[in-house]
Amino acid sequence: MSIKSYTICQTAPRRWREPAFGTLCLLAMVSTPAFAAGTPAGTDITNQVTVGYSVGSVQQTAATASATVTVDRKVNMTVTRTDTASVVVAPLQQRAVTTFRLDNLSNDTLDFALSATQLGNGATSAFGPGTDSFDATIVGIFLDNGNGTYDDGTDAQVTYLDEVAADANRVLFVVANIPDGRVTGDIATVRLTATAAAGGAANTQGAVLTQTAGANTAGVDTVFADGAGSGDSANDGQFGVINDYRVSAAALTVSKTSTVVSDPVNTTTNPKIIPGAIVQFCVAVSNAAGGATASGLTVSAQVASDMTYVANSIRLNGTVVSGVCQDDGTAGGTFNAGVASGTLNDLTAGSTLTLVYQAEVK
Predict the structure, then answer these.
(1) Cα–Cα distance between 208 and 205 in angstroms, integer?
(2) Same fold for the domain at 75-247 and the one at 252-361?
(3) What pLDDT sits at residue 326?
(4) Domain range 75-247, CATH architecture
(5) What pLDDT does 240 receive?
C-alpha cells in the first residue's frame, strides 16, 4: 500500500472596498492499496484526508478525517495430480499410491477438509485410454512428511489439512488396495477433493466456510474465487481432481505333460508305462502376451504314491518349442514329502518356462 498527497489551493478574488478572502488549500492523503492479490484478509487499510487553509494569510490548524476498510477473505485453491501417467498396479497389490498437491491461493491461512472417493464404472479416466472399470479399496489419505515420497508408517493419515498459510502447498497421497481378479488394462479412478475451512486454531479443523451473502460488511467477508475442478463447480469453496490406478497383470496358464522315457522290457524303443518304467513329467508355465512380468514363480508338483521320484532329476527354466517340452533346463529344485518343487526365473509376457522331473512306476 502507498500513500500519495495532493495539494489544491485557490485564493478568492478581491472585491471593491472588501478585504481579501483567505487562501484555502486542500491536502488529500489518499492511500492506494497494493494490487497484489495476496493482501492478507483482515488487514485494515486506512485512507486519510487533511484540509489545510489560511485566513488573512494566517495558516490555520488543518482539519483531518479518515476512513478505514478491512480486506475480506478471498478463498481460492487448486488440487493437482503430480503423477504424469496412471499408477501401474497388480492384482492383490497392497497400499498402491497416487500423488496429489494442494495449493492455497487464498489471502488467508485456511484448513482444508479432505475426501477420497471412487468414480463409478464407465467414468472417464484421468489419463486414458479406457474408463473406470473397478473399485480399489481406499486405505486413506496421507500427508507427505516433506520428502515428496510416500513413506508407509511415517507419513501421517489425515482427514484435513491444518493451518495452510496463504501461497503454501501440501503434498498428499491417496493409498488403496487392489482386489484380486483384475486383468491388464482395468482402471480404478479416484478423486481427491479439498473443501475450504476456517483456519486460526491449530490441530483442530475449522468450520467449513460459506460465502458471505449480500452487501459488504464491516468485518471480514468471505468470497469464493476457486475454479471448477472434478465433481465441483467454480466459486463453491471446493476443488477436486482425479487420478488412475491401471492394472498390469500377468495372465498365467499351467500345463502338465508326460513322456515315457524307458521301460524294463522295451528300454527306450517304444516304451510303455509298465512297472519299472521311467516317466518324465513337464510342468510348463506360460505368461500371455501384453501382460506384466511374473516374478517369484514357485512350482510344486505332487509325485503320485504309485510312483517313485528319480533322484536329482529336476530341471528348471527349460523351454517349450512347438508345444513340445524341451529337456534343456538346469539342475536344481528339491524333492520333499512326495513333492518335486523349484523356483523359475522371472517370466516375461509371451514366454514359457518349465520344471521337468522323472518318476518310476512302482
Answers:
(1) 9
(2) yes
(3) 95
(4) Sandwich (2.60)
(5) 98
What pLDDT score does 10 carry? 47
- How many residues are present in the chain? 362
Site of grid cell 486383468: 183
What is residue 2's predicted lDDT score, i.e. its pLDDT? 43
CA dihedral 339, 343, 344, 345 (to 10 degrees): 180
Alpha helices in the chain (DSSP H): none
Asked, as a colleague might, if the bond just before 129 is cis with ω within 30 of 0, I would say: yes
Q: Name the class of domain 252-361.
A: mainly beta
pTM of this prediction exceeds 0.90: no
Answer yes or no: are the C-beta atoms of 294 and 352 closer than 8 Å. Answer: no
Beta strands per DSSP E along 212-351? 222-224, 238-247, 252-262, 278-287, 297-302, 307-309, 315-318, 320-321, 324-325, 330-331, 334-336, 339-344
> Cα(218)–Cα(212) distance, rounded to whole angstroms?
12
**Nine cell digits for residue 185:** 488394462
What pLDDT shows up at residue 66?
Answer: 85
Domain boundaries, the chain: 2-71, 75-247, 252-361
∠ CA(107), CA(112), CA(114), 5° rounding? 150
- Rounded to a whole number, what is the distance in angstroms from the first to the last CA of the chain? 100
Regions of the chain where pLDDT drops below 70: 1-37
